[in-house]
Amino acid sequence: MRKRRGWLIGLGLGLMLGASMLQLMDVARSAPQSVQLPNEPFSREELEKEAGAKGYKLVRDDGETYTKEQLDAAVAQAKKEAADSPAPLSSGEAEGDGMTKELDYYVPPGASLQEVASALLAMELIDDKDAFIKLAKPSGGKIRVGLCRFSGKPTPEEIVAELTRAKN
What b/e readout covers 135-168, taking b as 16+ CB neighbours within 10 angstroms? Predict the structure, then answer.
């Protein structure tokens, strides 16, 4: 009996699996067919009704639509153009109106400390690029990609803290 143990286990498993498959086929054959596809094409109204029932919306072919890849490429291009231009994104009013001036700067991926310092100098947040680089050099590898918001005239230490802050 011990010599044929593997053969007997295989035979038993085969019989059990075969019986299970027969049961599944029998249940599938006797189950009512819930989804019947029509032989004729849908009309536009029927398509809109079915799409609305499933949570979708029909879009006409004559309008311009974009794929996710095209949209991602357009967003990446816009980010690159925004990063290349040193002009800040202004969120506040002028300082003369009694409100503090808010400036936004997007740190692009792969930006070096020199590039960031040049942009901050162009935004007039720092006065001396070399002094800022010397101050920020220990934190240079910790600069995070993302949007940095500066209010009023921040100190160089506050600027470094904002550049190294975790962003969402």
Answer: bbeeebeebeeeebebeeebebeebbebbbeeee
* pLDDT tens, position by position, 73-125: 988 888 888 777 655 554 444 445 556 788 888 988 888 899 999 999 998 89
Residue 94 lies in a domain: yes
pTM of the model as a whole:
0.42
C-alpha to C-alpha distance for 48 and 61, rounded to whole angstroms: 14
For the chain, what is the radius of gyration of the CA atoms? 33
Rounded Cα distance, 100 and 81, in Å: 27
**CB contact at 8 A, 156 and 137:** no
Domain boundary among 82, 103, 130: 82
Residue type, 148: C
Give the domain range for residue 94.
Answer: 85-163
Query: Could you say which of 28, 52, 82 is where a domain stops?
Result: 82
**Contact in structure between 157 and 150 (CB atoms under 8 Å):** no
